[in-house]
Amino acid sequence: MPGENLSRDEARERAELLSVDGYEVVLDLRSAVDEAEPADGPRTFRSVTTVRFRAAAPGASSFADLIAPKVNAVTLNGRALDPAVVFDGARIALDELASENVLVVDADCAYSRTGEGMHRFVDPEDGEVYLYTQYEPADARRVYANFEQPDLKAPYRFEVTAPEGWQVWSNGAEESREGQTRRFARTAPISTYITCVVAGPYHYVTDSYTRGDLTIPLGAICRKGLAKHFDADEVFLVTKQGFDLFHEIFDYPYPFGKYDQAFVPEYNLGAMENPGMVTFREEYIFRGKVTQASYERRANTILHEMAHMWFGDLVTMKWWDDLWLKESFADFMGSFALVEATRFDQAWVTFANSRKAWAYRADQLPSTHPITADIRDLEDAKLNFDGITYAKGAAVLKQLVAYVGRDAFLEGARRYFKANAYGNTTLDDLLSVLAEVSGRDMAEWSRAWLQTAGVNALTPVVTCDAGGRVTELAVVQDGDELRPHRVAVGLYRLDPDGALVRYARAEADVAGPRTVVAELAGQEQPALVLVNDEDLTYCKIRFDEASLGALRSHLGSVTDPLSRALCWSALWNLTRDGLMPARDFVSLVLAHAGRETDVGVLQMLHAQAQTAVTHYAAPDWREQGGKVLAACALQELRFAEPGSEHQLTWARFFAAGAATEGDFQLLLGLLEGSARIDGLEVDQELRWDFLLPLAAHGAIGEEVIAAELARDDTASGKRHQVRCLAARPSAAVKDQAWAAVVESDALSNALVEATIAGMQRSSQRALLAPYTGRYFDVIERIWADRSIQIGMDVVRGLYPSLQDSQETLDATDAWLSAHADAAPALRRLVLESRDDLARALRAQACDVAAG
């Protein structure tokens, strides 16, 4: 990987020298369906690229980017260059540049199994081959020669020759077809990382969107095997609702012609905002019954990617330092658009409870960074698609809307698009327009929120008189960097039927270590004080003792869903920070989760409760904690409304935590049909959810898993089968799983992920203990030999977090000390895993003290 890296300084120097007028990319993909695998290397396709570009300094030297097994020919301005001399495996050296240049590169590029570049997937259901590209941040060079950096934008023309019977799509609309060759329309100027090709015997549904004189052709694409599950009408509905809203608030028409959305297999991301050809992970096509939370997540992703058409595609950051200029905005606009334009009008509840949990974790790691990060190179960029760039950035933008006002924020966006269309920007370009429309000091706001790292904690301090009236309510702010917060403070009381309801509210600008909220003086003494009510700012909420006591007894009766979600989020942060024993958080879940109306919040509580037992509870209480959670889940499953999404959610939680012989017998009975829970439909996806814990606890063997694969011989079924096989409680099984991931690169990215997930079972700590030393022995080699994506999956996924002891922490420190010169991105991954383990040990100590 180091040879494939590109530094910020190199990119800046190249951008000062070069400007690109256009690309013509010709791909021949007919080799994708060849039956025989090559004996002497990877399967390849032919890629011929013509790049027209100018150089500011004639006679200067530069380089083009390409990662390919073989370069057949290179010509520069009609002059043939020797590939053996100018190509080093990642770069093509270009010397003696003219003012105007034409570079032609003929190469054999490799199909990918890792979701990077041109990914090739063979459907086990029918043997059909499907292709798609994925490039961010810098994998277009695996498909065609280019200048791989976001600020060297250019128009593109793609020409693709595909196997007989295939369909092909790219960013532009198809202009012509001759035999098996399609030629696509020239694009507007865009960056390399958002170009795209999708090809194969896909299922294709069409529609159109019209607004005034504007008509946008719409397409929705998936594998043939998923067509029977594909609710394209729902995808189109959300798409049209998004276009309506964004055209209204941005006042800039969608600039990229058609709008296809492809749901593709073995995808590493949630989705990618390729203009005119957005790609999504195909798990967003639901093979079984799912909750409304799943539909909301998909709708959020659709709208997130659509927002990128303006924030990211039309106007693009110069370098990955300002990745937030697209990702933070798209993350914010996804939730904003859900609430404003769709049926998912409680999306801010999901944002507060789920997205911000991701941000809080990332912002407390040793690798935390300002939202405007210091991105030295492409490896840094890959790792910074994280909770800070996405969720913290979005939360800070929500704070910005409260700070400058909604109208000023949107007017600033409109001016930003019009001033910078098809160009590249930095932080200052956005701040200047926001300062212009709002009259606010954006420099100070930016310094506090965008250019510093870390999260503040806000705690209420309430003083009352003898008559039960508030004499003073102050908000105390903790943190290394004290920031200005626009917050709402809510006061809640118990009404006669036991509900916690808000009776007073005040907004205030919190700044410095202590801020008095004068407007709340004189109010009756509250049962609960909720700082950051309505979730206007980004902070960790703390509680005074009286409020914490009220929540222990009445959390489930907080009437407002967002307020309740904020309370749950705050309690989880207390648990993660070792300030609340894990068993106390589990007790709160046992007492109040059954009353949670928002199914997305309920799913998050289930995940957090499992984490509390697995990682944060005292080791000698884990087994008991797991059993009480499973018993609670079974009780709530039986009490839930038959056929409801809550029933389905409790069924999955019960299966994930199944811990006794009785639990396993019930799961087997539900699978075989000898047991029944009224209203619970055990569809294929739920069958796999039940089989995984049975496999992990040795209640079923390989033959049962094989029979289930025969029943569901699909791509999804194969992933589930691999996960179940790796989960079996056997030393030989764990050795096989380790070898498949570490000693071989034959598995695709999706099957690497499934194998790791199956191998790492919390009930199998003793079986996994021998792999701690082996992990530290191999990770540097894995990082050097594999792609960045697989390297990340292995280094994160196989870290021995289940060996939660000081010895594992010491082994981690020893590796870090002995590998000070290892790749910074690799060290960052190890440091992050170490921090999670250290946090778990602190939380366990807190729980031990409580026990």
Mean pLDDT: 96
Number of helix segments? 28
Q: What about the largest sheet? A: 12 strands, mixed
Would you report the number of β strands?
28
Q: Tell me the distance between the termini.
A: 48 Å
Q: Kindly provide the radius of gyration, computed on alpha-carbon positions and rounded to a whole number of angstroms.
A: 27 Å
Note the beta-strand portion.
15-25%
Low-confidence stretches: none
Shape: globular
The proportion of residues forming helix, as a percent range, comes to 40-55%
- Secondary structural class: alpha+beta
Give an account of the 3D structure.
- This protein is of the alpha+beta class and 851 residues long.
- Helix content is 43%, strand content 20%.
- It has 28 helices and 28 strands.
- The strands form six sheets. Strands 1, 2, 4, 5, 7, 8, 9, 10, 11, 12, 13 and 14 form a twelve-stranded mixed sheet that branches.
- A hairpin with a 4-residue loop joins strand 18 and strand 19 (277-281).
- The radius of gyration is 27 Å and the shape is globular.
- The two termini are 48 Å apart.
